[in-house]
Amino acid sequence: MKKVWIISGLVLASLAVGTLIVMGHDLLSPHDATQVNTKAAGLPWQVESLPGGASKVMGLTLAPAGATHVASTLADAQQQWGQAMQIAIIAAPGEDGLLEAFVDPASAGFITGKAVLTAQLASAEIRAMRERAIKSEFMESTTRKYTLAPADLQTALKAPITALSFIPQANLDADTVVARFGTPAERVRSNGHLEHFLYPAKGLDLALDSEGKELLQYVAPAAFDQLRQPLVKPPQQAAASGLTSASQP
Question: With helix as H, strand as E and coil as C, how does the chain read?
Answer without folding.
Answer: CHHHHHHHHHHHHHHHCCCCCCCCHHHCCCCCHHHCCCCCCCCCCCEEEEHHHEEEECCEEECCCCCHHHCCEHHHHHHHHHHHEEEEEEECCCCCCEEEEEEEEEEECCEEEEEEEEECCCHHHHHHHHHHCCEEEEEECCEEEEECCHHHHHHHCCCEEEEEEEEECCCCCHHHHHHHHCCCCEEEECCCCEEEEEEHHHCEEEEEECCCCCEEEEECHHHCHHHHHHHHCCHHHHHHCCCCHHHCC
